[in-house]
Write a structure and sequence with these properties.
Length: 477
């Protein structure tokens, strides 16, 4: 039996966050009248337009292109040939779960799923060698079968390893760095099809640049990862007033292996999540009801957006205080699925600025009646990859979202300045509007990265126009 459906040990207190509770609260004449005056709830978010034949779209539908060709190599040799001879710009893509315009190209788009799988493993050293196109959701159970596990994962697991590393993808944990910190060695095919092997001991500058590269140095075909023995986690999820969670956050971050927080705009409530390592035991999993809650928050917005006080009161009745405990293997608890499509902006601010920045962001969001997505707040340890948002500093990550079929410009125009005021560095896979001068001031090794990039790709074959602007390169003639 799939343990994720096992109700054994389920424990919840307080009102569950379920659609049936919303329906009960919405049954009053005052809310029923408001509902009758509204159109139906918006349909599930999806691509804004149908894809053209042969085209590509990212997960949210925001980024799209119709390249000359889309290729799926099954080996390093095939990929090397493509990099040498295919029409440029050549861009590589895994899951397409980034929101920034890293992938779109009029030239050649290369799908990396054919470069997948565990190639070697060393149980004594707890090292595995894995194809760069391997999806995290595929790798995790493969490692589990070997008695191993990734030390940390992000909140979703659909990404390819190469894509996750290229964008600085991370999980949460004040003592746990981003995913690229697990890399001990790598194989990189450059824009000319040349193979470069890099580690801290061999081509260290390439290693420091390639762990977070925005896909601008070449194709990450293989990585050697430091992993650990498989382990179980105990997850506690609870809801509480926002002020209570904000006050407790620093202590929770230092006293737990993982801590994160979700603040629900226009409700006065948020959710805290902690994970602690525990002894192996029978899985006990409680569904957090994320999608049902998101549906309810969107309905509340649609019905009661013009009446913020009433919306807040109803939300308080809907959410209240509750707690749910789950225990399972780490990889089953750390990542979740996201069915509702959205666009996202995320910045990483110095840890000491985290709560102040979050409060400023929440205050601005409260001025937008249309906002309903939870704001995600996480802690991440420092690392030393040159373009890592966590280079040289422990950070707090703050992510803001808007439904994929709704305007999202305010995430950049209104929240972007708040992030920058607190020293924020952007998540490379999320929306931002920073240029090369601003980025050079934020990243101490920015110019070192550019030197390595120009050495490995002197013709700029891997640069689409958004990347050319980002790096301060002249547009193609």
């Amino acid at each position: 039996m799939d343990p994720t459906h096992n109700p054994t040990g389920q424990r919840e207190t307080g009102p569950a966050l379920r659609r049936r509770d919303f329906a009960a609260l919405a049954g009053g004449a005052w809310l029923g009248a408001a509902a009758s005056a509204q159109t139906q709830a918006p349909p599930p978010a999806g691509p804004a337009q149908p894809l053209q034949p042969g085209g590509w779209s990212n997960w949210s539908g925001l980024q799209r292109c119709t390249p000359q060709q889309i290729l799926s190599p099954g080996s390093e040799d095939e990929l090397a040939h493509i990099l040498r001879h295919a029409a440029g710009p050549v861009r590589l893509v895994g899951a397409g779960h980034s929101f920034s315009p890293l992938v779109p190209t009029p030239g050649t788009l290369v799908m990396t799923d054919g470069l997948s799988g565990v190639r070697q493993h060393d149980l004594n050293r707890q090292r595995v060698t894995v194809g760069g196109g391997t999806r995290i959701a595929v790798l995790a159970p493969l490692l589990d079968a070997l008695g191993l596990a990734l030390p940390n994962q992000g909140d979703i697991s659909v990404q390819s390893l190469a894509g996750a590393y290229a964008t600085g993808t991370h999980g949460t944990g004040a003592q746990l760095p981003a995913l690229h910190a697990q890399v001990r060695a790598l194989r990189l095919l450059t824009a000319t099809g040349q193979l470069v092997e890099a580690s801290r001991e061999r081509s260290p500058e390439v290693f420091d640049a390639a762990r977070v590269s925005l896909g601008a140095l070449g194709a990450l075909t293989e990585v050697e990862l430091q992993v650990q023995p498989r382990f179980f986690l105990r997850r506690r999820l609870w809801t509480a007033p926002v002020e209570e969670l904000l006050a407790a956050a620093p202590g929770l971050a230092t006293s737990h292996r993982h801590f994160e927080m979700y603040v629900l705009p226009h409700t006065g409530y948020g959710a805290g999540i902690t994970h602690e390592e525990v002894a192996p035991q029978e899985p006990q999993v409680v569904d957090g009801g994320d999608e049902a809650l998101l549906d309810d928050l969107r309905r509340l917005r649609s019905l009661l957006g013009p009446w913020p006080a009433l919306r807040r009161w109803v939300a308080g009745r809907l959410i209240g205080r509750r707690e749910a405990i789950s225990v399972d293997l780490s990889w089953r608890l750390l990542s979740t699925t996201r069915a509702t499509r959205f666009n996202e902006s995320e910045y990483h601010v110095p840890a000491e600025q985290g709560l102040a920045c979050l409060q400023a962001v929440l205050a601005q969001l409260e001025r937008h009646n249309e906002a309903f997505f939870p704001v995600e707040f996480r802690y991440v340890a420092a690392d030393d990859a040159w373009l890592s948002p966590f280079y040289g500093r422990a950070s707090c990550s703050i992510a803001v979202h808007a439904a994929a079929d709704e305007p999202h410009d305010y995430l950049l125009s209104e929240l972007g300045p708040l992030f920058r005021r607190h020293g924020g560095r952007p998540h490379w896979g999320k929306l931002h509007d920073l240029g090369p001068a601003e980025l050079a001031a934020l990243y101490p090794r920015w110019h070192d990265f550019q030197a390595v990039r120009r050495e490995l790709d002197p013709q700029g074959r891997l640069l689409n126009e958004p990347l050319r602007r980002l790096f301060g390169e002249a547009p193609r003639g």
